[in-house]
Write a structure and sequence with these properties.
The complex is a heterodimer.
Chain A lengths: L5 H15 L3 H4 L4 E12 L5 E11 L10 E5 L3 E11 L5 E3 L6 E4 L5 E4 L2 E5 L8 E11 L6 E3 L7 E12 L5 E6 L5 E4 L4 E10 L17 E6 L1 E4 L2 E4 L3 H12 L7 H11 L5 H15 L1 E2 L1 E3 L10 H7 L1 E2 L1 H14 L5 E5 L19 E7 L4 E4 L19 E4 L6 E4 L9 E10 L5 E10 L1 H6 L7 H9 L7 E11 L5 E10 L4 E3 L2 E5 L20 E3 L3 E10 L4 E5 L4 E5 L2 E10 L2 E10 L2 E3 L4 H15 L2 E6 L2
Helix pairs in contact in A: 5-7, 6-7
Chain B lengths: L3 H4 L5 H16 L11 H5 L11 E14 L5 E13 L9 E7 L7 E14 L2 E6 L6 E4 L4 E7 L8 E10 L8 E2 L6 E11 L2 E8 L6 E10 L11 E14 L17 E11 L3 E4 L4 H9 L15 H10 L3 H15 L1 E2 L11 H7 L1 E2 L1 H14 L3 E7 L19 E8 L2 E5 L19 E4 L8 E4 L6 E11 L5 E9 L1 H12 L4 H11 L3 E9 L8 E9 L10 E4 L21 E2 L4 E10 L4 E5 L4 E4 L5 E10 L2 E10 L3 E2 L4 H15 L3 E5 L1
Parallel strand pairs in B: 1-10, 16-17, 23-29
Antiparallel strand pairs in B: 1-2, 2-8, 3-7, 4-5, 4-8, 6-7, 9-14, 10-13, 11-14, 12-13, 14-15, 18-19, 18-21, 19-20, 21-22, 23-24, 24-26, 25-26, 27-35, 28-34, 29-33, 30-35, 31-32, 32-33
Helix pairs in contact in B: 5-6, 6-8
The chains are: A alpha+beta, B alpha+beta.
Chain lengths: ~625, ~675
């Protein structure tokens, strides 16, 4: 019976931990400990794969409660089988987990038309800690097209006592293998089996820190993928990017057929444009206006696009289908383009170039022109032609060709592109109320951040424009937005704000924040003893000009001084021009992309903090005698 | 149906004859839209004049529920919906993505789609182009063993398109009448709902929301039993027909301090209260509050579930061995349930497992958790009963409409002398005398066997949550401030503070986060009192230094913002107009006392004035008092929100009140060298 109170729990937990003899180093920053974990991958006949997963977690506190959930994924090409499981409480009592405790769910979140990805799901939330959760399951796949990253540490706040990966292959089943950290496998060669075992032990927990780099670059692990594979009758190989590309091409083959109506549309929309660039732009915009993104994962559809004529008929598709459709439209206009695989995500810049296997999760379109290469995101109805945004910028993409598929880097947006400018005219009254007339321009990735503004309802725009300003209350009028949807797109924004008591008052004085509006926000949190490296992914430039008109009958009692801060993280400059009854303040901030060691974090924090502090200063006006 | 059912039909023929005359009128009522017939003008329309920001417009939404006999002569519920939407913006094409949920396996047949068709209209070079939804593009998804969905996307949708969707769902879940929503997040030209049911059912109707019905009609008509349609009156029954409609429905948008939008959309719901089974025996299901009480008390999944006291015998012994104090016992009982049976996030009036099983599984739905608490309290000798209620996001219980299905939550009620407690053991972070925010919602109903005990009880929170701040600021001539602040809080504010603190791994992490949010603060020390002692106010003591922004030497004039530690910096009410009432959930009071010591040789040159202002009836009160003596300044403020609910007529006053508060709290003290 588990009806004990807190004192007893403490006693039991001491026993339990003692029994496990866990080094205190592994308990530091840890919410859970992997006591033991083994993944065994066996190759089967007919390109099948068997996947046996056994794990034993020690859950130390409530933050680890998700570790007592068991999620076993499967789909139409695989079967899942729960083998055994149990939960052991602090008093040693054990509870068996049974097959019937599992539910069978569709693994789809959000709107998806159809997916066959399913999960067997068991959920339990412990009432006391520590508690040990252990289980094992098996997945049998009918194909061997996969890339898997085995990481002993799965997440922040988790340490590992012991973990191993066992790969048993038939001698003719070669694997691509990349190891991270110091792991080298033990190899046992038998007649009909090669067995490789990687062992890991005593890995302390990693704490999450702001601006963290990918956890994979900081921990040990193994990435693997079969060199030759077969999926639903389609055979392929990972020997090179070219061979993987050839397989993707094979799946796509014959799917570029368009109905007559589509061909007619292509002819009509391109006939007035002589240049391929203009033709392509017209076609891309036609595709955007006629389709929308809907997730569909049917059969091998996880990798194979819908036919172009199906997309034309339905007016929707997933990333593969829409990219394939756009490619077909281009093809019809005599323009050759490439279906391109990419690892998308705003922090997913790194790809293992040497590890030639599927590391991708998204498809975009590449159009090489004589002078330039144009890239297109085909799932967006609003993205300007030739602009990618930070979901797919500055990273390798695999251009799919029948022969000779290669990695090509997508465009990098730098300090010449990612820019924000503002010019503000400020009028302040003796009661502190102020009127700001603001003109703004945002370019490149800064455009990306606010490109949804034109489609917001005015109420919502007013709310957005007042965010993070510290204004007590305000009304915004005369909002004008215009877009320049070019390859480095721009968004211009102008409006007038009446701010309630922007200046605080006190008898004869008005205290006016010297930066009542700016386009940047320095949000770098303090970290006392930084453990891990950090990274900034983009160069950026901000420049804000503020013209302050003195309140009538007041003079400046305290002004600002010019300021310049230089660092390897960026630079900041504040210039002041005093005119008669007016003051001009110009602030320019440049931020640089880079990756730095943990020891430099303090300097990074201080750079941003000194800017933040400078921007908090107030001008003081006093009534003339 | 067998023959003998007809004998029990005892409706006087004359009445029926009259009703037939009336039924002609209502049956002449045609469907408001014809599938596939659209107005070219609507296709040419580029925006909604009534709401120019709308990305899409519902041209018409029409739902109809009827009952009919199928080929097996079984009664079925037939729900037909016809929806027509105009798309203005390409982004709004997601209004063409549908997942129709269908329950199966919970009854014999469950819900089935018998008809589903859709067509998109586009204007191409001045002529209308139609695209039909292909059956092969409708996918069935198994969400769980009982829940399925039919998924489809309307084809060829783009800016300018109109689509028509019509579907019929047939079900043998006769009481599961779909709720109708007149209002959605895009505007509608009209929304109409018709509901017809045979006389052998009794339904209760519940209207909600702030919109008025443009049409609210009822009449009767005649239905025929299968096989005897033309063989005389004995095969007929009376059908009650209702028609509801709202024209020009505005879109529903959310606002700060608003209860869950579910409480505000305009809609109509029907709950089956009674039916004459096999048209002979009349079974009254709910009907009145007394019947709801009786139904629950005799249910295996509610009242009878409490008859397993053996399961808590050991706990009772443990608790009684620890204390004899009643309040301590309430606390221990609540703590035990909280720690031993985790709420699995499922809300329900009924248990799905027995209470001993919930203990064994260490997990249960809200009924299991709180019925267990009731049982434990009873075993400890308390006068305890269960309460059924509705969570905030499930809407408010309307006393005039006794509907059991409107309840989704169970609480524990305990009477201790003249004191009454309503308790909930589903939230780890709250003491026994506080309900989580989700559960605070007008009234719940006590379900008791005791004579006269069953009835409504207030579960809105009337006690004020109090927060007190006491700060001491020592100012040096160079502007550096040495400070100490004590924060005290009660009730939900205390729970919130404790929760925030506990989110951090240790004091160091808390300090890092605090300093990141408070520019220029150097937090030297933080102490907590009564972090887990729910009988005393929670207390935090901060010791810190504040660096001035201009780090220079001694200054002749110092500008001091006295409310450095915390102040109301921004008015939560920024919109000019309010569409929904303001709901603060519970009354609250925030007070501050700030003592400032000036550096020797300095005097106050300018200071804010003391003021006090309030809203009518003191529903909100603000006081700002400043006293000064020599080098000492004492500032006290108090903000009281004495009422949790404000109608939208009060909005302008409330907004102006908070405008004044934020202005006052930003005022500055100027001191200068003598």
């Amino acid at each position: 019976m588990r009806y004990y109170f807190s004192v007893l729990v403490l006693l039991f937990s001491a026993n339990l931990l003692f029994a496990q003899q866990i080094d205190s180093v592994l308990l530091k920053n840890a919410d859970n400990v992997v006591l033991d974990k083994t993944l065994t991958i066996n190759t089967l006949k007919n390109n099948g794969i068997e996947w046996i997963y056994q794990v034993k977690y020690l859950l130390l506190n409530k933050k680890a409660k998700d570790k007592s959930r068991i999620v076993i994924p499967y789909d139409e090409f695989s079967t899942a089988e729960f083998i055994s499981g149990s939960i052991t409480y602090g008093d040693g009592e054990e509870k068996k987990i049974k097959k019937k405790d599992f539910n069978d769910y569709s693994a789809v979140s959000g709107f998806s038309l159809y997916e066959e990805n399913r999960v067997l799901y068991y959920s339990y939330e412990p009432t006391t800690y520590p508690v040990i959760v252990e289980y094992a399951y098996k997945i049998t796949k009918k194909h061997n097209f996969f890339t898997y990253f085995f990481s002993p540490i799965e997440e922040y706040g988790q340490s590992v006592l012991k973990a191993s990966l066992i790969l048993n292959t038939a001698p003719d089943k070669a694997f691509q293998i990349k190891t991270y950290g110091s792991a080298e496998p033990e190899v046992l060669e038998g007649e009909d089996r090669i067995s490789r075992t990687w062992k890991f032990a005593a890995m302390p927990a990693i704490e999450w820190e702001p601006f963290a780099v990918d956890i994979r670059s900081r921990t040990s692990g193994v990435m693997l993928a079969p060199v030759h594979f077969k999926f639903d009758g389609y055979e392929g190989s990972n020997e090179s990017w070219a061979s993987l590309g050839k397989w993707i091409h094979l799946l796509q083959e014959g799917r570029l057929e368009l109905p007559e109506a589509a061909k007619e549309d292509v002819r009509k929309i391109t006939e007035n444009y002589p240049e391929p660039y203009e033709k392509a732009k017209a076609i891309y915009e036609y595709m955007q206006a006629h389709t929308r993104y809907v997730s569909i994962q049917l059969g091998i559809g996880g990798f194979q696009p819908f036919n172009a004529n199906t997309v034309h008929e339905l007016g929707y598709g997933d990333c593969k289908a829409l990219t394939n459709y756009t490619q077909a439209l281009f093809h019809e206009a005599g323009i050759e383009s490439y279906y391109s695989l990419v690892k998308a995500g705003s922090n997913a810049y790194e790809l293992e170039d040497e590890f030639t296997a599927n590391q991708f999760n998204h498809v975009i379109l590449c159009l090489p022109l004589d002078s330039d290469t144009i890239w297109m995101e085909c799932t967006s109805q609003k993205m300007p032609f030739g602009f990618l945004g930070d979901f797919t910028d500055n990273r390798p993409a695999l251009l799919i060709k029948e022969n000779g598929s290669t990695l090509v880097k997508t465009p990098r947006y730098d300090i010449r592109h990612n820019q924000s400018f503002s010019a503000t005219n400020l009028l302040i009254e003796p009661n502190g109320n102020a009127r700001l007339t603001v003109d703004r321009l945002h370019r490149g990735l800064h455009y990306d951040n606010i490109s949804h503004y034109p489609s917001l309802d005015p109420r919502e725009i007013r709310k957005q424009l007042g965010k993070n300003t510290g204004w007590k209350n305000y009304t915004i009028d005369q909002v004008n937005i215009s877009e320049e949807k070019s390859r480095i797109p721009e968004l211009s924004l102008s409006y007038q704000v009446d701010v309630l008591a922007l200046g605080s008052t006190s008898g004869n004085r008005i205290f006016l924040p010297a930066a009542p509006f700016k386009t940047y926000e320095a949000a770098v949190p303090k970290v006392r003893s930084r453990q891990t490296p950090f990274a900034v992914y983009h160069d950026e430039l901000y420049s804000d000009t503020l013209l302050i008109n003195f309140p009538v009958g007041y003079q400046l009692e305290r002004s600002l001084e010019a300021k310049a801060i230089e660092s390897e993280f960026g630079s900041y400059k504040q210039e002041i021009k005093a005119l008669d009854e007016q003051l001009i303040i110009i602030r320019t901030l440049s931020l640089f992309a880079g990756r730095w060691e943990s020891s430099q974090y303090q300097a990074f924090y201080e750079f941003h903090e000194s800017i933040k502090r400078n921007d908090l200063k107030k001008l003081v006006f006093v009534k003339r005698e | 149906m067998t023959k003998n059912h007809f004998k029990t039909l005892a409706v006087p023929i004359i009445v029926l004859a009259l009703l037939i005359g009336m039924s002609e009128v209502i049956h002449a009522q045609r469907a408001p839209m014809k599938y596939g017939k659209i107005d070219q003008k609507d296709l040419e329309m580029t925006r909604c004049e009534a709401d120019t920001n709308a990305k899409a417009l519902i041209l018409g939404d029409f739902g109809e529920v009827t009952y009919q006999f199928n080929a097996k002569e079984d009664l079925e519920l037939v729900y037909t919906r016809h929806l027509r939407i105009k798309i203005f913006d390409q982004e709004a094409t997601s209004y063409g993505d549908f997942k129709l949920k269908l329950w199966r396996g919970v009854s014999l047949e469950g819900e089935k789609i018998t008809k589903l068709k859709a067509v998109t209209f586009n204007l191409v070079d001045g002529s209308i182009e139609k695209t039909e939804l292909d059956k092969k593009d409708i996918f069935e998804e198994r969400i769980s063993d009982y829940l399925y969905s039919a998924n489809f996307s309307i084809p060829q949708l783009k800016a300018g398109s109109i689509f028509d969707l019509e579907y019929t769902i047939v079900s043998d879940l006769l009481g599961a009448v779909p709720d109708w929503r007149f209002q959605r997040d895009i505007p509608a030209v009209f929304s109409e709902y018709r509901f017809s049911y045979p006389e052998f059912f009794t339904f209760k109707q519940n209207m909600k929301g702030f919109l008025m019905l443009d049409i609210n009609e009822s009449s009767t008509s005649i239905g025929h039993f299968p096989g005897v349609a033309n063989s005389g009156f004995s095969g007929n029954y009376v059908v009650h027909d209702f028609r509801f409609r709202i024209d020009d429905v505005p879109a529903l948008k959310s606002e700060p301090y608003m209860n869950h939008p579910v409480n505000y959309y305009s809609g109509i719901e029907f709950e089956l209260m009674a039916y004459q089974q096999k048209f002979g025996v009349y079974k009254d299901i709910t009907g009145s509050w007394e019947k709801i009480d009786k139904e629950l008390l005799s249910s295996d999944h509610f009242g009878y579930a409490l008859n397993r006291p053996g399961a808590v015998k050991e706990v009772v012994a443990e608790i009684t061995a620890q204390t004899a104090d009643s309040i301590q016992m309430l606390h221990l009982a609540h703590t035990w349930v909280k720690n031993n049976v985790k709420w699995n996030k499922i809300r329900s009036v009924y248990t799905s497992n027995s209470l001993p099983k919930a203990i064994n599984e260490q997990s249960g739905n809200v009924a299991e958790v709180n019925l267990l608490l009731v049982m434990l309290l009873r075993e400890l000798g308390f006068d305890a009963d269960p309460v059924i209620s509705s969570t905030r996001d499930n809407g408010i219980i309307i006393k005039a409409h006794p509907m059991l299905s409107k309840f989704n939550y169970v609480l524990a009620y305990c009477k201790l002398g003249s004191q009454e407690f309503v308790m909930d053991a589903t939230d780890d972070n709250l003491p026994f005398y506080l309900l989580p925010e989700r559960a605070i919602n007008s009234e719940g109903r006590i379900i008791s066997k005791k004579f006269g005990r069953s009835g409504f009880i207030d579960i809105s929170l009337q006690n004020q949550a109090v927060e007190k701040e006491i700060s001491q600021l020592m100012i040096a001539p160079n502007g550096i401030i040495q400070a100490r602040t004590t924060l005290q809080a009660t009730q939900h504010i205390a729970a919130e503070m404790a929760y925030e603190y506990n989110k951090h791994q240790n004091d160091e992490a808390f300090i890092e986060a605090f300093e990141s949010e408070h520019t220029g603060f150097d937090l030297i020390e933080i102490n907590h009192n009564n972090l887990k002692d729910w009988f005393k106010p929670f207390e935090q003591v901060y010791r810190y230094d504040i660096k001035p922004l201009d780090e220079t030497a001694e200054q002749d004039v110092l500008y001091i913002q006295p409310m450095l530690f915390s102040r109301l910096e921004s008015n939560p009410f920024k919109e000019e107009k309010r569409h929904f009432p303001v709901d603060f959930v519970y009354p609250k009071s925030h007070s501050k006392t700030i003592r400032i010591s000036l550096p020797p040789g300095y005097k106050v040159e300018e200071a804010p004035e003391s003021v006090a202002f309030a809203l009518p009836d003191n529903t909100c009160v603000y006081k700002y008092t400043i006293l000064q003596s020599g080098a000492q300044i004492q500032l006290s403020t108090e903000l009281q929100i004495n009422q949790s609910f404000f109608g939208f007529n009060d909005y302008e006053l409330l907004k102006a009140f908070f405008d004044q508060v934020v202005q006052k709290e930003d005022e500055i003290i100027v001191v200068s060298k003598l």
